[in-house]
Every structure is written in structure tokens, then in C-alpha cells.
Amino acid sequence: MEDPGSIESDGRRRLRAALPLVAVVLAALLAVLTIVQVRNVVQGIGDHAGGRTVDRSGPVLLQSVRDLARYQAATGSFQVIVDLEKDAGFLPPTVVGQRTLFVAIGSVDAYVDFSRLGDDAMTVSADRRAVQVRLPHAALDRPNLDHQRSYVFSQERGIVDRVRAFFDQAPNEQAELYQVAERKIGEAAAQSGLADRAEANARVMLQDMLRTLGYQQVSITYA
Questions:
Q1: Does 56 have pLDDT greater than 80?
Q2: Best CA proximity match to 88, nearest among 10, 5, 157, 4
Q3: What is the pLDDT, as a whole number, of residue 26?
Q4: Do strands 97-113 and 151-157 pair parallel, antiparallel, or not at all (unpaired)?
Q5: Which letter, b or e, does each residue of 24-57 get, where b requires 16 or more Cβ atoms within 10 Å of its Cβ?
């Protein structure tokens, strides 16, 4: 039979051993309650302070659009036949004069210049759901002739011109052919609607890019 005194002493020892753990749990609970109270007080101050929110952010993506620099939005391929005739006026073409048919093949790039967009080029609505972008009209680059595919189709020369060509290859004549071809291709590109196609392509590109960022209404205009 166990001694009642020893049983009582064992119970006291267990109680004393459990006191530190109880103290730690109580301290943790007190810390949590304190943090909650402080958070509630801070939130209450913020809600009743009567402050205001000022949005000072600039037009979104303006710098990124500028970084696109010159966006090549369309390319047109052209072929033109240059019919260049020269004569002396007072002598028949069989003596002095020449006629050259030159087939010129080249391309023209149409682009939109984003590098010079001003700070007012992009306007974002207050709710960040709509954006308006104002761009310069598309421009046409200088015609680029394909020298490997361009060729002289036929050439007729008078006697004097044949003799002169035998001693001199007349590089200036070839340069003149290319200059005339470039001018004609440039004129054809201006009348082909290539610039309008470039503006339409640039509009689609920007609309897709801005809509992926969450803008529901995207307006692109050209000034």
C-alpha cells in the first residue's frame, strides 16, 4: 500500500514541472491578443483620418512604345518598266540616240515612328480600363531596288552611241536608270495604299498588346 504522503509529493512535482509550459502558452496568447488590438487601432485611425489617394503615375507603356522606335508595319513589292529614250533632235535615232527598256524590281517599307511620341500621346482612364493612343501617320521609306532581279530588257542605240559605248561603258546611264526606277516605284507605293495598310497593322498590334494587359477599351488614332 502506497504512502499518501509520497503520492501528494509526486503530484506537486508534476505541477511545478508543468508551470513553465503554462507560462509560455499564456505569454503567446497575450502576444497574439496585443498584435490584434494594435492592428485594429491602426486600421481605425486610417479609416477615420479622412485622407485621399492621389494617382501620380504616368501614362502606362508610353516608354515601352517609344522603345519600339520605328515600327515597320507593312512592305510592298513593286515592278516597273522604265522606258528611257534619248535623241539629238536634229539627227535621226539611227545615227544619234538610244532607247532602253529597264525592268526594275524593288520594295518599299511603310513604318510608324514611335520614337518621338510626346507625353500626351497616351491617355489612361481613371479606372484603368480604357486607353487612348495618338500616333503619327505612317510614312514610306526609300525604295529598295533588287539589283540581282532588275535587268535591261532591250536597248536600241544609234551608230554614234554604239561607238561611244564600245570605248565607254557609260556608268552614268545605268545610274540614271536606277534613279528613274526608284522615283517611279516611290510614286507607285504612295498611290498603292501601303501607308494605310501600315497604320491598320500598327493599330492591331497595339490593340492586342494593350488588351493583354487588361485594358478593355483601346482607341488608336492618327494625327
A1: no
A2: 157
A3: 65
A4: antiparallel
A5: eeeeeeeeeeeeeeeeeeeeeeeeeeeeeeeeee
| Mean pLDDT value of segment 27-48 | 62
As given in the structure block, the three cell numbers for residue 210 are 494593350
The conformation of residue 51, written as its DSSP 8-state character, comes to -
Query: What is the DSSP pairing of strand 70-87 with strand 122-124?
Result: unpaired
Closest CA to 111 of 207, 198, 203: 198
Instruction: Measure the CA–CA gap between 73 and 197, rounded to whole angstroms.
Output: 8
Cell digits of residue 219:
482607341
Burial label, 110 (beta-carbon count in 10 A; 0-12, 13-18, 19+): buried
DSSP string for residues in 182-220: HHHHHHHHHHTTHHHHHHHHHHHHHHHHHHTTT-SEEEE
Cβ–Cβ < 8 Å for 103, 79: yes
Asked whether 139 and 194 are in contact (CB, 8 A), the reply is no
Q: How far is CA 50 from the centre of its chain?
A: 42
Residue for cell digits 500626351? 120
Report the alpha-carbon distance of residue 37 to residue 44 in Å, rounded: 11
- pLDDT at site 122: 84
- Say which residue the cell 509526486 belongs to: 10
What pTM value is reported for the model?
A: 0.61
